[in-house]
Amino acid sequence: MKALMFGWEFPPHILGGLGTASYGLTKGMAMQPDMDINFVIPKPWGDEDQSFLRIIGACNTPIVWKDVSWDYVSKRIGDAMDPQLYFDLRNHIYADFSYRHVNDLGCLEFSGRYPDNLLEEINNYSIVAGVIARTLDFDVIHSHDWLTYPAGIHSKQVTGKPLVIHVHATDFDRSRGSVNPQVYGIEKDGMDHADHIICVSNLTRETVITKYHQDPAKVTTVHNAVEPLPEDIEAMTSSNGTKDKVITFLGRITMQKGPEYFVEAAARVLQRADNVRFVMAGSGDMMNKMISLAAKRNISDKFHFTGFLKGKQVYEMLKSSDVYVMPSVSEPFGISPLEAMQCGVPTIISKQSGCAEILNHAIKVDYWDIEAMADAMYSIITYPSMYEYLKREGRHEVDEIKWEYAGQKVREIYEKVIRR
Q1: What are the average pLDDT values for consecutive 10-residue runs of the chain, which has 420 residues?
Q2: Is 336 left (phi over 0), alpha (psi -120 to 50) or beta?
Q3: What is the distance in angstroms between the CA of the first residue and the CA of the last residue of the chain?
């Protein structure tokens, strides 16, 4: 089975859960002996793990070959491209992209991030995707998140291969309902053209069916999972080096993640206990507001902002925490609670998160119920038996939530759309 996947980020260079999920799923799928994955991203940095797939950079793919020899093109792309296709494309001019981003090698330039001209990069990426799709042999196209849906559509149009899209989130999640019409249009267009739609939770599946008017028969939930802890992470000590308890929020500090509810709950806990500190790890457009809110609640001396953490830093933070909290207003899935429980950290999650569908040993509260959230925090740091129970059973539970199993479900979907 050969899959052509389109993504936007890949570890270690990530800004959120999309890259983590893409890595985990592809690694899990690669455990199938006959699975061959080409994973396209706008801009590779050269240090991605390619032991189980091949990374292709859109920024390294020539799209304008005027006055360039076939020998040059074959060196850049390899012998996979048919020489006749080269001659067909050599003088072809694409009118839909900005030539100011084409370098001397005939390749489009990409930031590899989420720039101000994101919609332009998405469009350019879709053009490069068509060129890549023509050069490779594959059975199915798989597009991760809305940023790559146009790339998947274009690849389907030029090859006739079936398209599977993966909904990691929708704009209803990111915007608390204030949907961007352009983003919604891209998302719906991807869903309409897809042969099948994978959602990371039943919560997201319901949104896709009701808000984007998709046939339930072509929408399947495949819950995310978690990577096994590396040995060096497993060996880390679990102490924070102080006598104080540490309660942690880790994620993007945006309105989707409900950071203000964490701060408000922290203020209530500190009215009852003094031996506790709160950490907000991450970055985002609400960070300054949260710093101001902590000051307004007079808890700044007990509140710490670490900035963005990645890789080993994330696990160091979790290992030094006594409680992890994810108060998301709308969370399609949420991998971080699984990572926390894997580290033996008792976890509190909002009922409005997709991972709440599969976790039985995390405390679940409504994101807006500050009193319930504060009670849960206080109880875990006050009652040792409760702490030990959640630590032990939570770890046991997430150890059985594996990407290998998610990959098997995705494989079944591939076979279904190919047969059809």
Answers
A1: 97 89 97 97 96 96 64 54 50 44 80 92 95 95 98 97 97 87 97 98 97 98 94 77 89 94 98 96 95 97 93 92 96 95 97 96 98 98 97 96 97 96
A2: alpha
A3: 16
Is 12 within 8 Å of 311 (Cβ atoms)? yes
DSSP state of 260: H
This prediction's pTM: 0.87
DSSP code of 108?
Answer: B
- Long-range contacts (CB closer than 8 Å, 24 or more residues apart) made by 271-277: 272/378, 273/245, 273/378, 273/381, 273/382, 275/243, 275/244, 275/245, 276/244, 276/245, 276/246, 276/247, 276/302, 276/381, 277/242, 277/244, 277/245, 277/246, 277/247, 277/302, 277/303, 277/304
Within 216-275, strands assigned E span 219-221, 245-250
Contacts of 302 (CB under 8 A, 6+ apart): 266, 270, 276, 277, 278
Q: Before 327, cis peptide (omega within 30)?
A: no
365: part of which helix (H) or strand (E)? strand 363-365
Could you count the other beta carbons within 10 Å of the beta carbon of residue 419?
A: 7
| Tokens linked to 338 | 């699984």
pLDDT at position 72, please?
Answer: 53
Look at residue 94 in the predicted model and tell me its pLDDT. 41
Residues whose CB is less than 8 angstroms from the CB of residue 75 and which lie 6 or more positions away in sequence, other chains included: none
Contacts for 203 with CB less than 8 Å, ≥ 6 apart: 332, 352, 353, 354, 357
pLDDT of residue 92: 43
Question: Which helix (H) or strand (E) element contains residue 323?
Answer: strand 323-326
141 SS3 class:
strand
Strand boundaries in 145-284, DSSP class E: 163-167, 196-199, 219-221, 245-250, 276-281
Residue 291 CB neighbour total at 10 angstroms: 16
At 307, is the secondary structure helix, strand, or coil? Answer: strand
Q: Which of 371, 339, 334, 336 is nearest to 351 (CA)?
A: 334
Query: Cα separations (Å) of 69 from 87, 91, 112, 127?
Result: 10, 12, 29, 21
- Please state, as a whole number, how many other Cβ atoms lie within 10 Å of the Cβ of residue 72: 14
- In contact, 409 and 403? CB cutoff 8 Å: no
Q: Give the span between the Cα atoms of 28 and 45, in whole angstroms.
A: 23
